[in-house]
Amino acid sequence: MAKWLMIAGCVMLATGVLLFFFPGLFSWFGRLPGDVRIESGRSRIYFPVVSMLVLSLVLSVIINLFRR
After folding, report:
1. What is the distance between the alpha carbons of residues 1 and 60, in angstroms, rounded to a whole number?
2. How would DSSP label each residue in 15-33?
3. Distance (Å, rounded) from C-alpha 18 to C-alpha 33?
4. Does the pLDDT value for residue 18 go beyond 80?
5. How many CB atoms neighbour CB 51 within 10 A?
6. CB 5 within 8 A of CB 17
7. At residue 9, does pLDDT exceed 90?
8. Are 57 and 68 in contact (CB under 8 A)?
């Protein structure tokens, strides 16, 4: 468990550094075709369906690579 927590912390740190130095790097995330965005009046509803599918696929591949 400690090993996975340290890996998760390093990944979060690396992501934070990338976002700090390159703020537009992940600007595509959440704006993919298939992400549902409904804006009317004062309310906004946002469902990042395709973005979460892409994230799930990438994380599944990475986890399966580390398991073997």
Report:
1. 18
2. HHHHHHH-TTTTTTTT-ST
3. 24
4. yes
5. 16
6. no
7. yes
8. no
Instruction: Using DSSP, state whether 57 is helix, strand or coil.
Output: helix
Look at the block and give the residue holding tokens 């790097």. Answer: 25
Phi, psi torsion values for 5, nearest 5 degrees: -65, -40
pTM value is 0.65
- What pLDDT shows up at residue 68? 74
Quote helix, strand, coil % in the chain, to nearest 5. Answer: 55, 15, 30
Measured CA to CA, the distance from residue 31 to residue 54 in angstroms comes to 12
Mean local confidence (pLDDT), 45-67: 90
Q: Which two tokens stand for residue 14?
A: 């690396």
* Cα 18 from Cα 12, distance rounded (Å): 10
5-11 contact pairs (CB < 8 A, 24+): none
